[in-house]
Amino acid sequence: MIRYHNRSSNRVENEKVYGSQYVDLAYKNPIGLFLTKMFFVRPWLSKLMGAYEDSRRSVSKIKPFIEQYQIPMDQYEPQEFHSFNDFFIRKFRTGKRIFNSSPKAFCAGAEARYLAFENISANSRVKVKGIDLSISELFGNTKEEHALAQEFDGGTVIIARLCPVDYHRYHFPCDGEVLNQFQVSGLLHSVNPVALSVEPEIFLINERHVCIFKNETFGKVAMIEVGALGVGKIIQSYAKANYVGTKFVKGDEKGYFLFGGSTVIWVLKKGALTLDQDLTTNSSNNKEILETWIPLGDTLGEFRSDISRT
Predict the structure, then answer these.
(1) pLDDT above 80 for 68
(2) Is 13 a domain residue?
């Protein structure tokens, strides 16, 4: 059972896990785990799964999915879905989610379950709440990527886990200007907590898209989209963000994941952000670590005046 704290209801709730039996088989069963490591995490399989979700045959999955997971369709733009992926990347109706407009607010760029950790070293791998984290390895393995990681030494890492039942578009959490963007090749493990408990280095070995941007308030920020099992594609829908020097505003859509749960990670420089209290408390509770479900546009934290904005 996966428990999380719902910020909106201020209650601890149980997550309805899509495909939980398959996750358990893939990561809790010794034979399943062997097959997962040998075959299932290879990108070609997720692309094959994605091709089915793009087909008209997958339309039959939509109604049962909505009913089983009680998806509030009145919050989304009305449209005719031609595949399960059409449904999966549905958009919110205008006005259903509002980003905090204060330039001091760093907002939730994904509607997801969040963990956040401070003072993460860029020089070593550390285990935080059962997850292996290394800023250096998150950015990749080249000399240039390791040098970039050093700028975030001792920084804050915010992890947003998107379940299959969630809204799967992700947005910029603040205004900014693109400085760099690149892809890190890798595997496609599930990002479910069950999988992370068995393979804690998943965020360091899965395929990733890295965007480095600069914000006048928070300084340099890294935004990393992590691929996962079943995610056929990570689409960078904000095409202009592929170009160095492109400017964007808070709340602009950056991209979306096709079918499958996945993850967005933000890395900020040391001292750049004071995290919201519920996020800090839930991520560091000695009795039970809880992810915090936070709606798109809500704050994750606020500006710290002692940041070095270079």
Answers:
(1) yes
(2) no
Q: Which residue has 């990527």 as its token pair?
A: 145
Question: Is 269 part of a structural domain of the chain?
Answer: yes
Tell me if 54 sits within 8 A of 85, measured CB to CB.
Answer: yes
Say how many domains are in the chain.
1
Q: Which of 254, 190, 257 is nearest to 228 (CA)?
A: 190
Largest CA distance in the chain: 55
Is it the case that residue 40 has pLDDT exceeding 90? Answer: no
Q: How far is it, in rounded angstroms, from Cα 196 to Cα 130?
A: 8
What single letter denotes the amino acid at residue 269? Answer: K
10 Å CB burial of residue 306 (0-12, 13-18, 19+) is exposed
| 285 within a domain of the structure (yes/no) | yes
- Within a domain: residue 61? yes
Mean pLDDT of the chain: 86
The tens digit of pLDDT for each residue in 92-140 reads 999 999 999 999 999 999 999 999 999 999 988 888 777 888 999 999 9
The residue range of the domain holding 40 is 18-304
